[in-house]
Amino acid sequence: MIQGEKYEIYTATKSQDNFLRFYLPGGARQTGEVITQMADITKGDLTVGAHSQGTMMIQNGMVQNIDELSNIVQNNKESKFLVQYSGSPVSSKAVEDLVVNELYGGKEVINNMFNNEEGINNVFRSQVNPGDFIGLLGGNFGGINNNAPITTGDFLDQAGYTFTRGIPTIMNGSLQNNLDKPKNTSPHSGYPCVIGCGDNGATPNDIKFYFDVATQNDKPLSEYYKKIDVDPSKAKFNTGSN
Amino acid sequence: MKYIYSILISLFLLGCSTNDIDYTLARMAGNKPAGFFALDSVEEVNKWSFETNDYKALPPNTYKKDWELMSPWNGAYIYGGISFGIENTDVNEKGLLVGYGINMNSSIDKYGDRAKAVDTKDYNYISDLKNTYTNKKMAKMYYEVHGKENYPCIVTETGFSDRGVKTKSYGCYKFNKEKTKAKKVGITFIYTKSQKLPQAYQNLAKEYTYEDLLKRGQRVLDSLYIKDGWEE
User: Which of B88, B92, B128, B207 sits at 20 to 30 Å (Cα–Cα) from A159?
Assistant: First the structure.
């Protein structure tokens, strides 16, 4: 992994006795191998998270290790393998197919394992702040698992806001860098956690919420969007084909 | 890389105001409704319903006190689904401490093993699941019948998680005449009572309970209508 990617990928494991969080070194293949090894060694849950181009690294890594990883995930009924992409240029539809169908073996397996009818929301969330231009490169728009391929009218509908809000501010950094002028905040920077969060691997049951570290409770994503001065009405949520 | 994309797109857009571009693109695609919504009264809620191309159902019972003690009933339209609920009034500041949530979604699939098990009330299927999934042993699972056309449903009920969340999920099915396709409507009732609930919210949690959510939600189940149409 190049140095610039250092903070773009993380994994977090929650085993019965310990908790680890660290940054992965190496390229896509090594990344995939490390994920596979960690999925194999943990008796608890494994969360893989990535931001921006880091998600491409994770995606390629998982694809390259698909056979071994799917074997581990499908044969380890006690553990959860969770994936969060933030501001990703990888189509969330492609990840959905990989995680739901290839790794878990289908949505029914997921529903059975997680004791609900929520399908993909249990295991994979690709979240994009409304206006994030990097997300648009993969057809991903504001919200969670909101994917509109370039060939659809929905792409055009949503792309307008991304162009106008996201591009002029793309290099401005997160809210912390723009406290005096939140509307300058880059939608590509500053992403809250939405799956497998915190020390106990918390996941908001409601897809419209994120996990707030400060209160250790779930908060509405719509309010977070207001805080970074992006339009909440541009966010859409996809529960996938449950 | 980010700079290169930025420059390319900026050049592409040169000469147009951002408002023009936004308006033109939106017009080309057809304006879409906003995802989030909030309803201001019992009357407004009763004019509204859960409805997509696959299903229709009435909202849960709501009372005037909800708007006094909790947030307005609010939700979002989700692709293929709807999410609807209420939370403690200061959820934006303190996070979700006490709340009701109802998630609905749908899918159309082949008449597979799960659909067949629900259709025939196959208790061996449930037993096998409990033997296969460790997490399943912690949950209650059974069959019920709900909705306007007596849809067979598989019900999964979980206890309070370490986050203070308790859920009851219904997977209700309708089949095509040939029984080659199955349309499932998933309804999940989510009750939250934070494990670290401050003293000031104890009374609220006594007023808003898991049992109350299910009682209110019965209206959703009773009125559920799964529409025909079998294109996946």
Answer: B92
